[in-house]
Amino acid sequence: MKKIIATNNAPQAIGPYSQAVEVNGTLYISGQVPLVPETMKIVEGGIKEQTLQVMKNIGAILEAAGYNYSNVVKSTCLLSDMANFKAMNEVYGLFYTEQQPARAAFAVKELPLSVMVEIETIAVK
């Protein structure tokens, strides 16, 4: 059975999609961008600040669904510029210190709202 997950502690969807969907013990979190939930504005700063905000947004959705970072099995990191990979990786790594999830990371031509990073996540209980 499909369950839609929504929380005010993460940015509201900026299109026709849900923050996350849970099906049979698997949580699919839509790509998160560095919007501050309270203002719906992009966090100030560079790639490190943007990655930190994205990870906080993911954490809020995980928590709303009854999951945590240890439940994450797969992430896909989209970058506006591969030159930001190392800095993104430093911040991302703070959230996964043991039993890191599988991951793909690649640069794309452009991201929504012209942000530097977007991360989608899958978690399993």
Number of strands: 8
Principal-axis shape: globular
**How many domains would you count in the coordinates?**
1
Q: Can you say what the CATH homologous superfamily is?
A: RutC-like
Q: Tell me roughly what share of residues is in helical segments.
A: 10-25%
The CATH topology comes to: 60s Ribosomal Protein L30, Chain: A
Mean pLDDT: 97
CATH class: Alpha Beta
Radius of gyration: 13 Å
Name given to the CATH architecture? 2-Layer Sandwich
- Beta-strand content estimate: 25-35%
What pattern of helices and strands is seen along the backbone?
EEEEEHEHEE
Strands of the biggest beta sheet: in what spatial order?
1-2-3-8-6-7
Counted by DSSP, the helix tally is: 2
Largest sheet entry: 6 strands, mixed
Termini distance?
Answer: 15 Å
Quickly give the structural class. alpha+beta
**Low-pLDDT residue intervals, each spanning 5 or more residues:** none
